[in-house]
Protein: Hydrogenase maturation protease
Organism: Desulfoplanes formicivorans
Amino acid sequence: MKMDDGSGAAQQAGTVVVGIGNPLLKDDRAGLEVVERIGALNRDVDVEILYTVGFEILDKVLGYERAFIVDGCQLGNEPGTVLDLAVDDIFTDQALIGSHATTLGGTLKAGYELFAQEMPRDLRIILIEVEDAMTFANHCTLVVQRAVDKVVNQIMQTLAEKPLSAVS
């Protein structure tokens, strides 16, 4: 979604919500369920699904003004706990160091170093503490489903209250 304003500088537009997870594993699919639900609302927001936290994430967020990245986590919190983080939070919160969120954070930081003009000005990482990420299933546990509902509402409320023109 890059737009050229004639000066050769890339301008950013729109919002993307990226869900990360495994659609075959019970709670590991939480990020995917968030984006599926937001996509079904037919709002002015793009949705993307990823099955990895590698450099593919950059392909999904480059060119957007705002991005939400949603993933399940196992950090020892109460299942269903929702963490709303900025990229820098991943490197300063001891509970996150050593999780695959660090890999996600490192990839995003590299994106800001290499593609500063194309990375989102407003990027949030939303992690949902999972209860069961090992059982094969096409649905989340009840406690994680409630967290999915909460995250969908949180993202939609943010979009309604903070239009892109107000993003700093």
About this structure: The chain has one domain: 12-161. The two ends are 19 Å apart (CA to CA). DSSP finds five helices and seven strands in the chain. The helical segments are 30-40, 56-61, 89-92, 100-114, 142-161.
